[in-house]
Amino acid sequence: MARAAVSGRLTWRVASLAASSDLTGSARSLVFDVPGWPGHLPGQHVDVRLTAEDGYSVQRSYSISSASDGSRVELAIQRVADGEVSPYLCDVLSAGDQIELRGPVGGWFVWRDSDTAPVTLVAGGSGIAPLMAMIRTRAALGSRVPFRLIYSVRTPADVMFADELRVRAREDAGLDVRLVYTRQAPEGSPEPPGRLGVATLNTYAWPAEFTPNCFVCGPTGFVETVSDILVALGHDPRRVRTERFG
């Protein structure tokens, strides 16, 4: 596992955009070269700082989606139409352009490969970003810890990392992926669209008696609902870790 930076010693680093690609119609993957990157734990995030020529600067935090190795950092950015930062990152930033990154940040919402308990991942929309780092790190390490991902999206077109998740689920018996569509289900789907609720979590998450680690990430309301359901289903609150936005 790559070494994570010690909190309190974080410094700003210049990061250059190495590659970018569309994840959905409103989200992009941005991969940065970050010289001197100390490594990170899956689930951590970075602060991004943009500074204009007149000195005005703005900061935002984004979860890391890449596995815990190498000197590159991948961010999955959901474009916010009236946002101050995400439209620039998604629509203006091009290969070779530079921004500032500070991190990695966070020590609670992380998966460590030394913990052999089964893992339930629950994502809402772009909340899949830090969970992808966990999935990718598990694969890179050859870990046999069983993962179950429950991913809630509005429509099939909103699934971030769709092709990668499809391939990983097909080729890795230790990774189960369940997609939940809230607005429009794909043609031929046996289940109608609907919000993620008790029945889905009771059916597809690891049972509480298995003492799994649960990681929940998404909009605030989504995270609160899911974590409350997991606790009501008997999960140890100390094993339900949450990351929220919005």
Automatic annotation (TrEMBL):
The keyword Metal-binding applies. It comes from the Bacteria. The keyword DNA-binding does not apply. Residues 10-111 form the FAD-binding FR-type domain. Keywords: 2Fe-2S, Iron, Iron-sulfur, Metal-binding. Its cofactor is FAD. PANTHER family: NADH OXIDOREDUCTASE HCR, PROTEIN RFBI. This is Ferredoxin reductase.
